[in-house]
Amino acid sequence: xxxxxxxxxxxxxxxxxxxxxxxQADLKAMLAHGVHGMSVVTAVTAQNSVGVQGVWNLPAAAxxxxxxSVVDDIGVDAVKIGMLGTAETCVLVAELLTxxxxxxxxxxxxxxxxxxGDPLIDADAIGAMRTRLFPxxxxxxxxxxxxxxxxxxxxxxxTDQARLGRTLLELGPDWVLVKGGHAEGDPVDVxxxxxxxDQRFSAVRDDNRHTHGTGCTLASAVAARLALGADxxxxxxxxxxxxTGAIAGGFALGxxxxxxxxxxxxxxxxxx
Length: 272
What we know:
The longest helix has 17 residues, at 232-248. With 272 residues, the protein is α/β, with parallel strands linked by helices. The two termini are 33 Å apart. The relative contact order is 0.16. It has a nine-stranded mixed β-sheet with strand order 3-2-1-4-5-6-7-8-9, sandwiched between helices. It has helices at residues 22-32, 60-73, 87-97, 123-133, 144-151, 161-169, 214-227, 232-248, 264-270; strands at 8-16, 36-48, 51-57, 78-81, 106-108, 139-140, 175-178, 188-193, 199-202. Helix 1 links the parallel strand 1 and strand 2. It has a single domain (8-264), classed as UDP-N-acetylmuramoyl-L-alanine:D-glutamate ligase, CATH 3.40.1190. Keywords: ATP-binding, Kinase, Nucleotide-binding, Thiamine biosynthesis, Transferase. This is Hydroxymethylpyrimidine/phosphomethylpyrimidine kinase.
């Protein structure tokens, strides 16, 4: 926890030109939590409400330079990792994370596919994420589909979130939160940790299709709360409540799936 008036949270992720997910969603969620958001852009996408029209991965030197520029001068109290795109970037980010001061929490959102079904990571990167990044994560936040992919071929068709989470714990993170928004019924996220009972965080499913950026938003909210001093279960509970409100406030933007409303709580407070 910093002595500054605000905590510093770094997002390492891809840019979403439509503003609904990626770096843009991360920074909005961080602002809503009252922390100072910083960014390392790993990829640039041409993206809007109907899909992803193009992806351009940044060279390793550009990613490393952004990281060192921010961390060496400003410092960081928590890190959120999103879209990395390639195995090379996964390995590079893992190496960069090992240079952080001890105790800086890392939230890993293993982004593989966009809300519209467009792939955002190559096949080799899955292996690099499993072996290099999961061991460095304080908490990993895969959705059900991502958890199955990361758990391996034996997990195909698996619906037990706790079992998937415990399989992924074997890769080395301190905690795994398997999100259930893609399952039938009301969404339940299941948090598993070493030597702890499973914890379930439920919400009523909102009848709103404008949910672009929910995964990025949740992971960023967890990172912000960890940076402010919360423990993992408390941070997850608060982030779940925040993203549930953001989903309820999601709005139409463009012709397809609109974004969640990162400022829903502020709008309610201001009555606007």
